[in-house]
Amino acid sequence: MSSPPQGKSTVATEEVTIPADVPGRTRRTALVVAAGLACGWWVTSLTPFSAGATVAVLAFGVVELALAEAVRHRRRLTGPGRGADLPITAYLVWVVALAVLAAWELFSLFNHPRSAHPTISSLVDPLLAHHVIRWLAFAAWAWLGWELAR
Amino acid sequence: MTTRTWGYVGWVLVAAGFAAVELGAVATRRWATVADVVRALTRRRTMQLACLAGWLWLGWHFFVRSSR
Predict the structure, then answer these.
(1) B64 and A53 in contact by Cβ < 8 A?
(2) How far is A102 from A75, CA to CA, in rounded Å?
(3) Which one, of B46, B23, B32, B63, lies nearest residue A86 by Cα?
(4) Is there a contact between B7 and A134 if contact means CB atoms under 8 Å apart?
(5) Is residue A53 part of a domain?
(6) B-chain residues within 8 Å CB-CB of A89?
(7) Which of A6, A137, A145, B62 has the fewest Cβ atoms surrounding its Cβ within 10 A?
(8) Is there a domain that residue A12 lies in?
(9) Total domains, chain A
(10) Whole-model pTM?
(11) Structure ipTM
């Protein structure tokens, strides 16, 4: 393969199909994510155990699920599916891992004192006392919901 | 080791086990990754709805019921 003459710019020769509305879609996605993060900051600032916090978290979840459902519907009409199934044995190791997690959580839950038998909640609670960490955890929770719903 | 230490060591082992399973899956492709599990769960509508109900409960539990 010969190299291009010096001083001349080159262009890629491969043809790449880019949907015409990608910049607009990217901007919309960025706006939705930014709005979600701002909303998450507000939701995580509400007083725990309050009716306001309950309504805010559930409303956030419901709106996110509605958005994901719209995306899922559009993808079903135009896009590819979510890939082929793996054999059932490929998931067994995760079943075992989740069973171990559940067993340890239940063992800790039914044993006392809590300081000697911490549960996931008792480990996470002190971290969630910090607003920034609480907000980041909320963002992670929102992302998980999006992945499950879309 | 004290009972208190064991309580924390147990969680460290569980977390290390999850990390090892995921890294093993990515490195060898002999079993499913977390992403494969999510895809498999969300392919069936009933399983997806069950997971989403659990997800909403998690949000309520950690962001409403946790004390600050």
Answers:
(1) yes
(2) 35
(3) B32
(4) no
(5) yes
(6) 31
(7) A6
(8) no
(9) 1
(10) 0.80
(11) 0.88
In angstroms, the CA A136 to CA A41 distance is 9
Q: Does A95 touch chain B (CB under 8 A)?
A: no
From A107, which residue of chain B is nearest by alpha-carbon distance? B7
Given a contact cutoff of 8 angstroms between Cβ atoms, the answer to whether A123 and B11 are in contact is: yes
Q: How far apart are CA A20 and CA B16, in angstroms?
A: 45
Range of the domain at A124: 22-82+112-149
Angle between helices A51-78 and A22-43 (to 10 degrees): 160
Kindly tell me the number of DSSP H helices and DSSP E strands found in chain B.
3, 0
Parse chain B into domains and list their residue ranges: 1-31, 32-68
- Closest residue on chain B to A48 (Cα): B64
- pLDDT digits 0-9 by tens, A53-91: 999 999 999 999 999 989 888 877 765 555 567 888 899
Q: Rounded to an integer, what distance in angstroms lies between the CA atom of residue A16 and that of residue A11? A: 12
Locus of tokens 């979600």 = A36
